[in-house]
Amino acid sequence: MVQAAMTRGREARDAGGFQQHKLAPYAFISPFYVLFAFFFLAPSLIALVLSLFRWDGINDPRFVLARNYGRLLSDKVFAQAATNTAVYAIASLLIVLPLALVLAVLLNSKSLRFSNVWRAMYFTPVVTSTVAITLVFQILYNRDIGLLNAPLIYLGLEPIYWLGDRSWVKVAIIILIAWRSTGLLTIYFLAGLQSIPEELYEAASIDGASMLQKFYRITIPMLRPIILFVSIILLLSSIQIFDEIQILTNGTGGPANASMSVVQYLYERGYTRLRLGFASAVGTVLFATVFILSLLQLQWYGVFRKED
Amino acid sequence: MGERFGQRLGVIALHVVVISGALLTVAPIAFMIYSSFKTTTEIFTLPPWLPPAVWSFKNYETLLTNWPFPYWYINSIIYAAVVTIFVLFFCSLAGFAFAKYYFRGKNLLFIVLIGSTMIPFQLILIPLFILMSRIDWVNHPASMIIPWMAPAFGIFLMRQYIQAVPSELMESARIDGASELRIYAQVIVPLVRPGLTTLAILTFLGSWNSFIWPLMVLRGSRVVTLPVGIATMRSQATASQIPYGEMMAAATLVSVPVIALFLMLQRYFISGLTIGAVKG
Fold it and tell me: Is the separation of the CB atoms in B260 and B254 below 8 Å?
């Protein structure tokens, strides 16, 4: 009798435990999905619908079908912002990525002394406040009294109008991007380098391979997944660039929109001018671009190939 | 002998390149700190390594008296701390579920989770802001906290750490009659402290340095966070009277504590950044 009661008790508890075991994971992951649905998915859908309307946030929205998109594609400022953003992205891929890769190889070298100290110095920009450092660069870029022009002025040459010239302003921003992100990418590459078996290099040395050959024949192929990962990160962060340009150009994206990024354009139209439908169209185009670029990039690196 | 000489030359060249790059990297930060003790004229005086005529904390004093700087600082600390606490809890719970449970729809749910990290937040900037104004969260602390409490990357990160915990520990706790939540709190959490530290650092830093969102949702000189407040120091000044010295003092106060923290906890920081790259 007592035995039976105990068994029943244990069964009940097991059943309870079993139920709990089944339901617990759903309870544990639910905060993410609730927040995701409410603050991410819902706004995305709102954006999609809103991009078909004209709305200032006060009066009633007016349905305009695809007119926002038509206007966007013929808008000169948008074309400029898209071009600028592409320039930042391409410069990041062609300059920052190779720079970080070479730096990682150098920092990984066994003959380098005090490697930890140099690493820490290269990584500091990753944690430094963007706003703070951009204000510093603004001082350094000053045309008449800035530090970067000092050598030119000293030599009697024409100083560079870093923040006032349509081309130089992009160079100024790319330098800032390089300063901010090289260290971060180096962290990724260093992690990747650690996973390359030492024997590969030793075997290559026995075969008489030079440093450069080892770099091209071993390091680069072995790092391919990391290079893919890093270039996606770079591309996504280039497309999102806002803080640096907003501060460096005092919110103008100037001179004459020559440095304006797409997000800055979106911010200006949507937030400052309250053209909410139009800005939603910008967001949707941006979304489509990111999506297509990611797929193309994955394909380029052969992620979809069956046998690798 | 010639070969060994060449090798030594190579090692020297390696050091020259690495060290000059490292110095160039920290130079702007050094310039910032150094300038915070100078007057505006001295900041632009060449060469930049000339010391100020008088070493003084004048810029720091005026920063604290002329600007609501202490408010910005406190706001930033509170937001970063509160967000971090929520993130640690929600991400470790969800990471635990993905690492140690089998449940229906797990794969699909995980794909949604990973997919969401690929999409830049700026894409929903305007509609999220519209949503905030509809539910009256503009200039409300909730807008700075609630949407950011369970980031997908944090869940992914915690999943990676929790996967390394042996499942037998869980099983034996379960046989002892421990509830699932108890297993989480008493078995999992103590074993993934390094992961939690890493996530805490990354989250705190992200919140501390965030700019565009607080720029949009916070209004009023005393309610904004540090980056937004410092940006207004520049944007509100007339071109001839930009308070460069005070700005450099503010920039120093916002970045130096974080850099110091990074130097102390570098190990956690780097493992957090790379765990996704190498394993994922």
Answer: no
pTM: 0.88
CB contact under 8 A, A28 and B209: no
- Angle among Cα A174, A177, A182 to the nearest 5 degrees reads 120
In this structure, CATH architecture of domain A76-300:
Orthogonal Bundle (1.10)
Together in a domain, B17 and B141: no
Could you give the residue ranges of the DSSP H alpha helices within B36-166? 40-43, 58-66, 69-100, 106-117, 125-134, 142-145, 152-163
Domain range for B262 is 59-279
How many other C-beta atoms are found inside a 10 Å radius of the C-beta of residue A27? 14
Residues of B in contact with A123 (CB under 8 A): 262, 266, 270
Taking residues B51-73, report their average pLDDT: 90
One domain for residues B233 and B266: yes
Count of CB contacts below 8 A, A vs B?
Answer: 271
Q: Do residues B197 and B71 both lie within one domain?
A: yes
Contact B144, B83 (CB under 8 A): yes
Q: Are residues B155 and B236 in the same domain?
A: yes
Q: How many domains does chain B have?
A: 2
Q: What is the pLDDT of residues B184-224, one digit of tens each?
A: 999 999 999 999 999 999 899 999 999 999 999 999 889 99
User: Same domain for B19 and B98?
Assistant: no
Residue recorded with tokens 């999905």: A33
